[in-house]
Specification:
The complex is a heterodimer of chains A (about 280) and B (about 120).
Chain A: H1 4-18, H2 27-40, H3 46-55, H4 60-69, H5 81-98, E1 103-109, H6 115-126, H7 128-131, E2 135-142, H8 145-153, E3 155-157, H9 167-173, E4 174-177, E5 180-183, H10 185-188, E6 191-195, E7 208-212, H11 222-234, E8 236-243, E9 257-259, E10 266-269
Parallel strand pairs in A: 1-2, 1-7, 2-6, 7-8
Antiparallel strand pairs in A: 3-5, 4-5, 8-10, 9-10
Helix pairs in contact in A: 1-4, 2-4
Chain B: E1 3-7, H1 11-23, E2 27-31, H2 34-43, E3 48-51, H3 60-69, E4 77-82, H4 87-96, E5 100-103, H5 108-117
Parallel strand pairs in B: 1-2, 1-3, 3-4, 4-5
Helix pairs in contact in B: 2-3
The chains are: A alpha/beta (about 280), B alpha/beta (about 120).
C-alpha cells in the first residue's frame, strides 16, 4: 500500500508536469501503473521508487512516473466517426478553400503510440487520386518519450493491428516482420513526430487547419482545459477545425470554438459560421 | 436476429467464439469442417461466417471458394479466424473471397472490431 502522503506527493507532481488530475482515492491506479516502472528501474517496491524520486535532483524519475500515470490507450481508426468526418466533410471543404496547390496542416495532439496520425496518413494515401496536388503535413506530438519512440518506429503487435484496422489496410500499408507489423515507409514518411507537452508553449508548431485532440482534456481540470483550448484556438486557422472525443465538449470552456451542428466532436473557430455539409 | 456460422474443428474454439458472437446478438450455428459448413449454408445462408483454415475433410480456403460459387453464396460476410498469420495466407484468403481476417489468438474486442468493419454490426 502506498501511503496517503506519497499518493498526494505523486499526484501533485504529475499534475504540475502534465495537468493530469489524480484524486487521492486513486491509490489502486497508482499501484497498477507504478509497479511495472519500479520493477523496470530496479526498485524493490513502489515506496522505494517514490523515495528515490524525492531525492532525485534532476527530476528524471518524476517525469517517468508522470509518463507511467498517463493513459496511452489508442487504436487504429478509433471511434471511426472522426475519420469519416475528416474524409467526407473536412477534406472537401478545405481542399476547395486551399485550392489545388495549397497545403493542409494537421496536428494530432497527444498521439500516444501513433495509431491516430497513421490512420489519417493511410486515409490520405488512399484518397490520393481525389486530392490532386494538395499537400499535407501531419504533425503528431506526445509528452511521453516512450510512446513516441514506438510511434516513430511504427511497429505494432498482432493484437494492435487487429483493433480498428481493416484487413485490406493491413495488407496495403504494412509489412510483416516476424510476429510484428511495420507500417510502410511511404506512410511513415507522412507523419512528423515531436515531443510536446500540452502544458508548455507550443506556438512554435505553427498554425493548423485541423487539430485532433481527442480524449486528452478529459484528464485535466477545468482551468487547465480552458487554458489549453485557448492556446489551441490561437493556432487553429480561421476556417480550421478542432476534433475532440465523442464524450468531450468545449461548451463552458471555450468561446473560441463553436460546435458544428449535427457533428458530434467537431468544432470550428467561433465566428467562422460553419454548418454541416448537406 | 442475424446468424453467424462458426466453422472450426476445435470444440473449445467454437464454444469461445459462440459466447463472443452471442454477446454481439447473433444467432450462432456451428460446423466442424468446411463440408459441414457448406451443407449448413445450403440449408440457410448465414449473414456471417467465422472460419478456421486448417480442418479435416474440407479446409477453410476450399470452403470459401465453394461458398462463393453457391447460389446466394456471395452474401455472407466471411471472416477467417486462424493461426495462419502471415501475409501470404491473408492475401490468398482475400483473393478466394474472404472479407476479413482474424489472426489467432483472438478476443471479443477483435471480433467486434472486425464485425464493425464489415458492417455486420454498428459501431458502438
Amino acid at each position: 500500500m502506498i501511503s496517503t502522503d506519497d499518493i498526494k506527493f505523486v499526484a501533485e507532481q504529475a499534475y504540475k508536469r502534465s495537468g493530469l488530475v489524480l484524486s487521492t482515492d486513486k491509490g489502486y491506479l497508482l499501484e497498477s501503473r507504478l509497479a511495472p516502472l519500479a520493477r523496470a528501474e530496479g526498485f524493490p517496491s513502489i515506496d522505494a521508487l517514490i523515495a528515490a524520486a524525492k531525492r532525485d535532483p534532476n527530476d528524471r524519475i518524476l517525469w517517468q512516473i508522470t509518463e507511467a500515470l498517463a493513459t496511452h490507450e489508442t487504436f487504429f481508426f478509433r471511434d471511426n466517426t472522426p475519420f469519416d468526418l475528416f474524409k467526407q466533410e473536412i477534406l472537401p471543404v478545405l481542399s476547395r478553400a486551399r485550392g489545388n496547390s495549397g497545403s493542409i496542416r494537421i496536428w494530432c495532439a497527444a498521439c500516444s503510440s501513433g495509431q491516430e496520425p497513421y490512420s489519417l496518413a493511410m486515409m490520405l494515401e488512399e484518397e490520393r487520386a481525389r486530392i490532386g496536388n494538395l499537400r499535407f503535413e501531419i504533425i503528431a506530438t506526445d509528452m511521453a518519450p516512450r510512446v513516441l519512440e514506438k510511434a516513430k518506429a511504427g511497429v505494432y503487435s498482432q493484437f494492435e493491428v487487429q483493433r480498428g484496422l481493416a484487413i485490406q489496410r493491413l495488407v496495403q500499408h504494412f509489412e510483416q516482420q516476424g510476429d510484428q507489423w511495420r507500417i510502410k515507409p511511404n506512410i511513415r514518411a507522412m507523419v512528423n513526430f515531436q515531443k510536446q507537452n500540452l502544458l508548455e508553449n507550443f506556438s512554435n508548431l505553427g498554425s493548423f487547419d485541423v487539430i485532433f485532440c481527442r480524449n486528452v482534456l478529459i484528464y485535466f481540470d477545468a482551468d487547465t482545459k480552458k487554458r489549453v483550448l485557448a492556446r489551441l484556438a490561437s493556432q487553429t486557422a480561421q476556417d480550421g477545425y478542432l476534433i475532440m472525443g465523442a464524450a468531450e465538449t468545449v461548451v463552458g470552456l471555450s468561446q473560441d470554438y463553436s460546435p458544428v451542428e449535427g457533428r458530434r466532436g467537431l468544432y470550428g473557430r467561433a465566428g467562422a459560421a460553419k454548418s454541416a455539409a448537406a | 436476429m442475424k446468424t453467424c456460422l462458426v466453422v472450426d474443428d476445435s470444440r473449445v474454439i467454437r464454444k469461445v467464439a459462440r459466447k463472443i458472437i452471442e454477446e454481439l446478438e447473433f444467432n450462432c450455428v456451428e460446423a466442424a469442417d468446411g463440408s459441414e459448413a457448406l451443407e449448413a449454408c445450403r440449408k440457410q445462408m448465414p449473414d456471417a461466417v467465422l472460419l478456421d483454415w486448417n480442418m479435416p475433410v474440407m479446409n477453410g480456403l476450399d470452403f470459401v471458394k465453394a461458398l462463393r460459387r453457391e447460389e446466394g453464396g456471395d452474401t455472407p460476410v466471411v471472416v477467417f479466424c486462424t493461426t495462419e498469420n502471415d501475409m501470404a495466407h491473408i492475401t490468398e484468403a482475400l483473393r478466394a473471397g474472404a472479407d476479413e481476417y482474424v489472426m489467432k489468438p483472438f478476443d471479443g474486442d477483435i471480433i467486434e472490431s472486425k464485425f464493425q468493419q464489415t458492417g455486420l454490426i454498428r459501431a458502438s
